[in-house]
Request: fold
Amino acid sequence: MKHCLPLAFLLAAVSPAVKAQEPGKIVEQYVKASGGAKALSRIQTLSVEGTFTDSEGKAGTYTLDTKLPNRLYTELLVGEHGVIEAYNGKSAWHRASDGTLATLTGPEGMQLESASQFYNSRLLDLKKHKVAVAFIGHAQVKGQDALEVEMTSATGMKRRLFFDPQNHLLVKDAATVGGVNQETYYRDYRAEGGVQVARHIELHRDSASYELRSHASQ
Reply:
C-alpha cells in the first residue's frame, strides 16, 4: 500500500538520497548485498526445498528448481496432491491440484517464461535480457518501509519488487504467474555458498497462502 501524500513528503524530507535513487542503483545495491555479481553469476542451478503449512493447517513440501539459462520448476505438494508449474526453455506447462496437465500458452505461458527469467537472472545483466526497470516509490511491506521497483520483460510481463532500504535485500515480489496472482515475502536471510538466501518464505497464490521454511543448494 502506498503512503498518503503527507507521509510521502515526510519521507522525502527525511531521506531525499534514498527517494532520488535510480532503479538501476537499487538493483545494484541488491546484487552487492546478496553476495556480489561474481558469486551470483557462478550459480548454474539452484534448488530451494522446504516444508510448509497452508492456510488450512495442512503440511506439505515445496520445491523450486532453476537452471541456466531459463528453466524453472516449482512444486507445492500436500500428500499426492498439489500444483506444479514449469518452463523448460521453450514451453510452459502446469499440473493442477486435481492432477490435470496442461500446456500454458498466450499470456499465461509468457508469465511463466518471465518468472523463469527473473529467478535465473539473479537481477544481473537486465539490459542484456531487455528487461526494463522503473522506480515506483516507497511502499509498506509488513509495516516496514520498502523501495518498490517494477520490472517489465521484453514480452511486456511485469513484476513488482520491494527492497529493504537498509540492507538492500528483497523483501517481497509480486506478479501474475500462469494466470495466478502471486505475492512472495522473504525474510531470515542467511549465507549459502556466499549468497544470501531467505530461509523463511511466505507465499500467497490468489486466496491460498503458505508459510515456507526452506534451505537452498547450488
Q: What stands out?
A: The helical segments are 5-14, 16-19, 23-34, 37-41, 106-121. The chain has a mean pLDDT of 88. The chain has five helices and 13 strands.
